[in-house]
Amino acid sequence: MTFLRILGVVTVAILTIAYSSIFVVDERQKALVLQFGQIKAVKEMPGLAFKIPLIQEVVRYDDRILSLDSQPLEVTPLDDRRLVVDAFMRYRITDVVQFRQAVGTGGTASAEKRLERILNAALREVLGSVGSNEVLSDGRVSLMEQIRDDAISEALSLGIEIVDVRI
């Protein structure tokens, strides 16, 4: 009787350890395997993967295109008219190692705060250098592209690719 109990406890322990060493990377995700906070492996392909239980942890990041809606921003163009601009950005995490090193444990929320600052700075710079008529006309498309290009160069250090910016 005691042998069966010991065997049962050992079996449950082995199954628990085996279960906690396997994880699944979804096709919409990228994963980092961390050991005591240090990056040990990057899993970008979907499927089963393994880690050392109780020592390593898995942090998952979304591989899809994400969106960021910024707060309305008051901008003063060259003709000193005040415009309230509402902008949104589409972005994707391209380099999870660089992303993790840049934003730390804050993850996507911390990155979105930094992206919003980058977007607001690009909006102020580009829209402040033209007249309000150009902002409100068909020339807005070229302004959005210029804002996107300015933001792309800033976001590369975060491991993020900016796909699109709209105002």
Write the layout of secondary structure elements.
Blueprint lengths: L1 H19 L1 E4 L3 E7 L2 E6 L3 E4 L5 E7 L3 E4 L3 E3 L7 E3 L2 E6 L2 H8 L3 H21 L4 H4 L4 H16 L4 E7 L1
Antiparallel strand pairs: 1-4, 2-3, 2-5, 6-9, 7-8, 9-10
Mind explaining what this structure looks like?
It is a single chain. The N and C termini lie far apart (73 Å). The protein has helices spanning 2-20, 96-103, 107-127, 132-135, 140-155, and strands spanning 22-25, 29-35, 38-43, 47-50, 56-62, 66-69, 73-75, 83-85, 88-93, 160-166. The radius of gyration is 23 Å and the shape is rod-shaped. It has 167 residues and is of the alpha+beta class. The strands form 4 sheets. It has a 3-stranded antiparallel sheet with strand order 3-2-5, with no helix packed on it. Strands 6-9-10 form a 3-stranded antiparallel sheet. β2 and β3 (38-43) form a beta hairpin.
